[in-house]
Amino acid sequence: MQFSRITTRQLEIAYETGGPGDGMPLILLHGWPDDVRTFDLVLPHLHRAGFRTLAPWLRGFGPTRFSSATTMRSGETVAMARDALEFADALGLPRFSIIGHDWGARIAYWLAATAPDRLDRIAALSIGWQPGALATPELPQARAFWYQWFMATENGAEIVRRDGKAFARFQWDTWSPPGWFSETTFAATAAAFDNPDWAEITLHAYRVRWGAAEADPQYDAERRRYAGVDRISLPALMIQGGDDRCSLAASSEGKDARFSGGYRRIVLPGIGHFPTREAPEEVARLLVEFLVA
Predict the structure, then answer these.
(1) Helix/strand/coil (H/E/C) assignment for every residue in the chain
(2) Sequence-separated (6 or more) residues with CB below 8 Å from residue 194
(3) pLDDT tens digit string along 44-80?
(4) Of 122, 123, 266, 283, whose CB is crowded by the most CB atoms within 10 A?
């Protein structure tokens, strides 16, 4: 993999690229608390299938940096969706496909809903699409989202700012069946949380989601456009861990009618919130099968 940087309107985005230089462009978007390492075990399969992969660190993660100290540290999906489009623009990619996990899945859905002319197809892992206003989840899912409510408190915010890696580690320990990662694996990704904006991006992302923080007004027009979309017209694959203890499997059920361009949801028994790490061979097979169809 080759490490590079590219400048967009608000960011200097760090990213890794690999695969054939003339391959079909495929942008890989990680989630929280994670980074580009989440795709490491599926990359060889994607490269052999002829894809040129581009995996950026999202705003607030790893070596990616804001260009200005005055830019609002928004963790909103709409902000990261614009980042992804500007990343593609800077690379000269008129069209591309996306694989997104967790936050990356939300970004993929947002772009599929608002910029379908730029995408060929999307694959989302661990998060189902929920258009429109965010509804309060059913109680089992609300319990699994404890960390989101916790971050809306000042005590929770203090912990994220003071010891964010320990907070992230607790999610890794509890979102999947035990024993799925090593200390080395966590340390390699946790280095991305040393970004000086990681805590504020994290806190804003979850606080704004539930109305506990103000949204960045520069994205108002894009929010209105997204609010008016109730179907995705692109081919979409959704991979869900059957034992996901963060985004419960039930949360991604019954979405078929929201996709008019073809949709397939696959549940992997015994797999938790990090399918690319927990079942890389099966996930890679499913992704390649979908992307080359």
Answers:
(1) CEEEEEECCCEEEEEEEECCCCCEEEEEECCCCCCHHHHCCCHHHHHHCCEEEEEECCCCCCCCEECCCCCCCCCCHHHHHHHHHHHHHHCCCCCEEEEEECHHHHHHHHHHHHCHHHEEEEEEECCCCCCCCCCCCCHHHHHHCHHHHHHCCHHHHHHHHHHHHHHHHHHHHHCCCCCCCCHHHHHHHHHHHHCCCHHHHHHHHHHHHCCCCCCCHHHHHHHHHHHCCCCECCCEEEEEECCCCCCCHHHHCCCHHHECCCEEEEEECCCCCCHHHHCHHHHHHHHHHHHCC
(2) none
(3) 999 999 999 999 999 999 999 999 999 999 999 999 9
(4) 122
The arithmetic mean of pLDDT across residues 210-236, rounded, is 96
Phi-psi region of 89 (alpha: psi -120 to 50; beta: other; left: phi over 0): alpha
pTM score above 0.85: yes
Length of the chain: 293
- Tens digit of each residue's pLDDT (9 = 90 or more) over 159-177: 999 999 999 999 999 999 9
User: How far does CA 164 lie from the centroid of its chain?
Assistant: 19
Per-residue confidence (pLDDT) for residue 68, from 0 to 100: 97
Q: Which residues pair with 166 in a beta bridge?
A: none
